[in-house]
């Protein structure tokens, strides 16, 4: 009998969550599709099969409070770009999968209010008076609408967010409140945010430390300057490049993030190696196999030199899906450890991903596929995994994807079958099986 280590995810809280706003644009500030799933393998969201990776830009520290600003990449966009070209290149990082996660935000859309975390949109439900709750994973957060349309949020750990700047008007009858301060009330410390017409200008702490933002002619973020006591410490420089996504289509995508350290007035030195991003071009040659997914992230080079290469497979999916789906089916990591030989063909380089198609679900907005069962196999390419090889350490992952209990694979018998299809549980990992032997199968 094959040895297995089985981990069951206990579901203690079963909350209903109101429907989230529907949109087909994951790069937009608002609205964006309801996106679920937090289990990740080298930045791959296992629920949907897309790259969902956060790249930390900087962290400002205070006493009892801090804020990390991330860039976020969503690989689903490359297939969606032809749906509405303008909105995919209109945010601070140029779109095409990239967005700046300067969140949270509050939105009024007509008579409805929403909470945004940058990944999904949560409908604010009244709790009486001026109080609201976002529900879902933020069900413990207390949202209050005060006088003069000043919003505040108290999290379960006592952190407070305040939104006291005038809202920015957007398309339709939409108003967006950007965060003004993040405070630790017990310490009296704060992180402050400055915006002009919805564009982020600076983020500062209480110790005379600030990060200032500069933008190019096209509105794309080009420099983040880190200062202390009005002296420049470091400048983060973002550069972009043109990528071919069709026979006569090109888009400008984020290519490089470089850190320049200020060593003297007018003299800088690269503080650390750059983070680099390469994308699949139209009619590209694919040395590691898979299908061409023009415009999608192909290779990520980390400052320490580790290179992760992604391969995609076009999936036969329900016709209602708004655009073709290309799942990540393998990645190759060359970091001197996983691949100690330096040869990109070394089997230790690879991890393959297989998605069970028989019970895949569509997200409510028809943007994402949501899988119930996903299998990861370290040490095998996608082609080898499909040939029947089952290596030591391959992992079976099972997610709640909106199906009723009867449609879910390997669901523990003691689970409450009336709750598993609830929206609040969408994307939750309920079972993980690590297979410890390759010699005997079930």
What does this structure look like?
- By secondary structure, this protein is an all-beta fold.
- It has helices at 77-80, 382-386; strands at 4-8, 40-41, 44-45, 50-61, 66-74, 98-100, 105-109, 112-116, 121-123, 125-128, 131-133, 142-145, 151-154, 160-163, 168-170, 174-178, 181-184, 189-196, 199-204, 209-215, 221-228, 231-246, 249-264, 267-279, 297-301, 307-315, 325-334, 350-355, 361-362, 369-370, 373-378, 395-399, 429-435.
- The chain has a 21-stranded antiparallel beta sheet. It has a 5-stranded antiparallel beta sheet with strand order 2-3-4-5-6, with no helix packed on it. Strands 9-8-7-16-15 form a 5-stranded antiparallel beta sheet, with no helix packed on it.
Helix tally? 2
Uncertain segments:
1-23, 438-442
Distance between the termini: 7 Å
> What's the number of extended β-strand segments?
33
Percent of residues in β-strands: over 45%
Radius of gyration: 23 Å
Structural class: mainly beta
- Amount of helix: under 10%
Morphology call: globular
Give a brief rundown of this model.
By secondary structure, the chain is mainly beta. It has helices at residues 77-80, 382-386; strands at residues 4-8, 40-41, 44-45, 50-61, 66-74, 98-100, 105-109, 112-116, 121-123, 125-128, 131-133, 142-145, 151-154, 160-163, 168-170, 174-178, 181-184, 189-196, 199-204, 209-215, 221-228, 231-246, 249-264, 267-279, 297-301, 307-315, 325-334, 350-355, 361-362, 369-370, 373-378, 395-399, 429-435.
């Amino acid at each position: 009998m094959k040895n297995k280590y089985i981990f069951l995810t206990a579901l203690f809280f079963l909350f209903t969550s109101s429907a989230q706003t529907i949109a087909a644009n994951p790069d937009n500030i608002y609205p964006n599709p309801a996106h679920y799933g937090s289990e990740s393998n080298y930045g791959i969201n296992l629920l949907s099969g897309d790259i969902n990776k956060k790249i930390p830009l900087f962290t400002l520290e205070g006493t009892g409070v801090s804020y990390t600003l991330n860039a976020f990449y969503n690989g689903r966009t490359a297939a969606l770009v032809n749906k509405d070209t303008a909105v995919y290149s209109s945010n601070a990082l140029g779109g095409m999968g990239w967005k700046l996660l300067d969140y949270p935000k509050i939105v009024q859309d007509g008579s409805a209010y929403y909470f945004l975390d940058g990944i999904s949109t949560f409908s604010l439900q009244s709790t009486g008076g001026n109080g609201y709750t976002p529900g879902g994973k933020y069900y413990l957060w207390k949202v209050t609408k005060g006088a003069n349309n000043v919003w505040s949020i108290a999290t379960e750990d006592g952190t407070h967010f305040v939104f006291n700047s005038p809202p920015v008007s957007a398309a339709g009858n939409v108003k967006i409140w950007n965060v003004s301060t993040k405070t630790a009330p017990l310490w009296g410390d704060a992180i402050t945010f400055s915006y002009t017409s919805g564009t982020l200008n600076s983020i500062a702490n209480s110790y005379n430390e600030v990060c200032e933002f500069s933008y190019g002619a096209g509105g794309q973020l080009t420099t983040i300057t880190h200062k202390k006591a009005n002296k420049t410490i470091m400048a983060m420089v973002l550069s972009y490049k043109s990528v071919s996504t069709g026979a006569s289509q090109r888009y400008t995508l984020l290519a490089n993030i470089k850190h320049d350290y200020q060593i003297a007035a007018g003299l800088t030195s690269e503080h650390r190696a750059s983070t680099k991003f390469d994308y699949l071009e139209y009619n590209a040659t694919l040395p590691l196999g898979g299908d061409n997914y023009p415009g999608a992230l192909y290779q990520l080079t980390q400052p320490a030199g580790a290179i992760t290469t992604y391969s995609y497979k076009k999936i036969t999916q329900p016709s209602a899906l708004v655009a073709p789906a290309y799942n990540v089916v393998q990645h190759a990591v060359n970091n001197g450890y996983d691949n100690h030989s330096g040869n990109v063909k070394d089997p230790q380089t690879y991890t393959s991903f297989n998605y069970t198609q028989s019970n895949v679900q569509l997200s409510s907005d028809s943007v994402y596929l949501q899988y119930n069962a996903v299998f990861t196999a370290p040490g095998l390419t996608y082609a080898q995994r499909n040939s029947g090889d089952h290596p030591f350490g391959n992992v079976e992952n099972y997610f709640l994807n909106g199906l009723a209990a009867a449609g879910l694979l390997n669901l523990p018998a003691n689970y409450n079958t009336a709750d598993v299809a609830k929206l609040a549980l969408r994307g939750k990992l309920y079972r993980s099986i690590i297979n410890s032997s390759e010699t005997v199968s079930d």
